[in-house]
Amino acid sequence: MSRRSANLSLWLSLGTLLAITLACFLGSALLPDDAGEQALSERLRPPFWSPDALAGSPLGTDAFGRDMLARTLEGGRVSLEVGFGAATGAVLIGTLLGVVAGFWGGWLDRIVMALADVWLAFPFLVIALATVAVVGSDLPVLIALLTLGGWVLPTRVTRTIAQRVRSEDYVVAAAGAGASDAYLMRRHVLPQALPVVLVVWSFTVGALVVIEGALSFLGLGVKPPTPSWGNIMSDGTVYLDTAWWIAAWPATMIVLTVICANGLGNGLRRRWATPDTSRVGEKAAAR
Amino acid sequence: MTDVLSIEDLWVEAGDPRDPVTLVRGVSLSVEAGSVVGLVGESGSGKTVTCMASLGLAGRGVRITRGSVRLGGTELVGADEPTMRRVRGGVVGTVFQDPLGALNPLQRVGDQIAEAVQLHRGGRRRAHRDRVVHLLTQVGVPDPARRARAYPHELSGGMRQRVAIAMALANDPSLVVADEPTTALDVTVQAQVLDVIRRATKDDGRAALIITHDLGLVAEVADRVAVMYAGQIVEKGSVAEVFAAPRHPYTQGLLASRPALEPGRRRLSAMGGRPPLPGSWPVGCAFAPRCPVAVEACTTPPPVDQSDGRWSRCWHPQVESMEGVS
Asked: Is B297 helix (H, G, I), strand (E, B) or coil?
């Protein structure tokens, strides 16, 4: 892939992702219709291209007559909050653990890496289901849970970088100039890890939006009446043969978000082509 | 004269604590205030490990098992991290072999020098700009204010090493430790950098410990020299004495294998064999297998001979002049 087309996919993905995010966060506030407002006389109205479409509901209505545009955007707000929030949390925790483990090594490194291996050995969705069944599925719980779902990748890649940078001569030189370990990590390791961390963050957003969708679809994520892409899809499955649009809109949004998040990750990776970032692409692709 | 650095009976080992490899065996070495000491030896002789372990920079798994390192009155063996940090960069400045590796490629060189100042004097990096320009001038970097804004890859090898030396001098240390400071440079640049080192040390009355395998460098800048072989010092003394009449056969061999700029064709003499690897050092004199004058006694640890005010670790120190050897 040429540099130019890599940049095109980067900007296209970034633009679309920003548009989706803005629409979801601002749109639900700006739209006249409330996502929860029912109108039982206007149930299951089709989207705008059909002659039966309801004026003011271009994407149709669901089984309670709720406006699908408002629901899709409001559901997106919830899904993206979970996705962005958990990905950010995962990357923060992972970077901290990875940098410290890689820099110091020894028993700390062994413990962190063993935890990562053990964590990956469990099927995450099963852990998530069990936790949600016991603790419930408030938004903070979901974000915390998905944060745990995403910490391993950023931990591993930043650890590798920290290990490499740690033995660079300029780090030893800076230590020779009197720098503390914390200073070396902050000033020499972190700046090198930053591009990779951003790439990992954007891949993680994609992965976590899917997991949130899956949990909510199974009824174990965001609880109705709060909409999320996952639970709107779940509602829609009953009407797939008569009102397919209910499930189709959130599904489309999830697919679009994931494609854009991965496109953003790949684009950043190519733009900042370093050995570190290309390895991340392989790891993310392997998942 | 007082000693700036005094290493006493230093033992260093590395690797698995249950099956350690000894790297340094009882090295004693001192650097007087204002004097320049050259530490020479082949690769793997333990000269770099001696210095880096003394400063606690040798890396994971390298341990000092015995001995004492006193730097300006502070004991460094077993010292806590804050003490070590105050000493590193403050009392002792370090110059590394590869100037490109010793500079962070992502930071402007001026920022890196400022960082070295900031670590000890506090304040913001920008506040030390004048100090940075002063340091760069001191090491002979032309147009220092502009060069301070350059990234390492924009500078030549010689300029980078000057920057690295400026970093080492950032807090006006009383001792500079330089690990092969000219090895990675072009021959034409070596002389210039050597000049910078000489000015920054000898001419400023600052003590220096220069690790090198370049005997010419030692002859030019050092007052005293210590020769290491297989983790031990085999001979030490003033440069004048050691170069004129080496006592240890190894020192003789080293000096004899220098190319000489004299008229007449002469084969370059070389020592046979290679130095033993750490972990497989012989019980007796480690140099015995390669020594032209080895005898039966050399299979037992050699004593230190201190006759005539000289210092060598040999069963039969050579007292005749170099003539017969070369």
From this structure: helix
Q: Which of A167, A176, A191 sits opposite B55 (nearest CB)?
A: A176
ipTM above 0.90, yes or no: no
CATH dotted code for B3-91+174-259+269-324: 3.40.50.300
As its CATH architecture, domain A81-286 has Orthogonal Bundle (1.10)
Whether residue B323 is predicted with pLDDT greater than 60 in this model: the reply is no
CB < 8 Å to B112, chain A: 170
Per-residue model confidence (pLDDT) at position A129:
85
Quick check: A169 contacting B, CB < 8 Å? yes
Closest by Cα among A201, A202, A254, A255 to A228: A254
- Residues in contact with A75: Cβ distance below 8 Å, sequence separation at least 6, in sequence order: A35, A227, A228, A229, A231, A232, A250
Q: How far is CA A82 from CA A75, A96, A146, A208, B92, in A?
A: 11, 21, 8, 8, 52
Q: How many CB pairs under 8 A join A and B?
A: 67
Residue B223 main-chain phi, psi, to 5 deg: -90, -40
Per-residue pLDDT, A101: 93
| Angle, CA of A31, A34 and A40, to the nearest 5° | 130
Q: Quick one: which H or E segment has residue B71?
A: strand B62-71
| Domain range summary for chain A, segments of one domain joined by + | 81-286
Q: Is the pLDDT of residue A169 over 70?
A: yes
Q: Which residue of chain B comes nearest to A189, CA vs CA?
A: B104
Nearest to A170 among B59, B102, B120 (CB): B102
Residues A138, A142, A143, A148: what is their CA dihedral angle, to the nearest 10 degrees?
140
Disruptive mutation site among A170, A186, A189 for chain B (greatest number of B CBs within 10 Å): A170
In the prediction, which pLDDT does B201 show? Answer: 83
A103–B contact, CB cutoff 8 A = no
Q: What is the pLDDT at residue B139?
A: 87
Taking every pair of C-alpha atoms in chain B, what is the biggest distance, in angstroms?
Answer: 66
**What order of strands is seen across the sheet that includes strand B3-14?**
B21-32, B3-14, B62-71, B74-75
Tell me how far apart the alpha carbons of residues B322 and A149 are, in angstroms, rounded to a whole number: 73
Q: Give the tokens for residue A271.
A: 């733009």
Distance between CA atoms of A195 and B216, rounded to whole angstroms? 46
Residue A285: is its pLDDT beyond 70? no
CA distance B285 to chain A (A): 34
Contact B64, B50 (CB under 8 A): no
Residue B195: per-residue pLDDT: 85
Q: What part of A 190-219 touches B (C-beta under 8 Å)?
A: 191-192
- DSSP H or E segment with residue B3: strand B3-14
Please provide the average confidence, as pLDDT, over all residues in chain A.
Answer: 84
Q: What is the DSSP string of A47-100?
A: -TTSTTPPTT-TT-B-TT--BHHHHHHHHHHHHHHHHHHHHHHHHHHHHHHHHH
CA distances from A67 to A48, A52, A239 (A): 12, 14, 16
The string of pLDDT tens digits covering residues A10-32 is: 899 999 999 888 988 887 677 76
Confidence class for position B225, pLDDT limits 50, 70, 90: very high
From the list B88, B101, B103, the residue facing A176 with the nearest CB is B88
Q: Which of B86, B98, B102 sits opposite A178 (nearest CB)?
A: B86
Say yes or no: A275 contacts chain B, CB-CB below 8 A. no
